[in-house]
Amino acid sequence: MANLITVDPAICHGKPCIRGLRYPVENVLEWLASGMSTEEILADYPDLNKEDILASLAYAARLSHVKRFERLVA
Questions:
Q1: Which phi and psi (to 5°) does residue 41 adopt?
Q2: d(CA 21, CA 4)
Q3: Are 40 and 32 in contact (CB under 8 A)?
Q4: What is the mean pLDDT of each run of 10 residues along the chain (74 residues)?
Q5: In this structure, how many other beta carbons lie within 10 angstroms of the beta carbon of residue 66?
Q6: So what's the pLDDT on residue 74?
Q7: Where are the alpha helices (DSSP H) in 8-64?
Q8: Which 3 state secondary structure label does DSSP give 5?
Q9: CA-CA distances (angstroms) from residue 71 to 19, 21, 67, 68?
Q10: Other C-beta atoms lying within 10 Å of the C-beta of residue 11
Q11: Predicted model pTM
Q12: Tens digit of each residue's pLDDT (9 = 90 or more) over 44-59
């Protein structure tokens, strides 16, 4: 995943992107969340490949790891 997800301050304001291209990981995740299939994404964005989409999902999964959850009381 490290070579597929890149962060460069000069590209997309430093957001995590696919292979230094101007495809932020958040866009790929939003497309998937909206119901687009991997095949539809690949058809619409020929610069991407299946590994890019899987790397985006793995990146999101890694970000969601927490050691402990505490309820915040307002």
A1: -65, -45
A2: 10
A3: no
A4: 89 95 97 97 97 96 82 73
A5: 7
A6: 64
A7: 25-33, 38-44, 50-63
A8: strand
A9: 37, 38, 14, 10
A10: 16
A11: 0.83
A12: 999 999 999 999 999 9
Is the CA virtual torsion 13, 15, 17, 23 positive or negative?
negative
Phi, psi dihedrals of residue 30, rounded to the nearest 5°: -65, -40
Residue 13 is inside which H or E element, if any?
none
C-alpha dihedral (17, 21, 7, 2), degrees to nearest 10: 80
28 close to 18: Cβ distance less than 8 angstroms: yes
**Both tokens assigned to 64:** 């969601």
CA atoms of 26 and 6, how far apart (whole Å): 13
Q: Token digits for 53? A: 């989409």
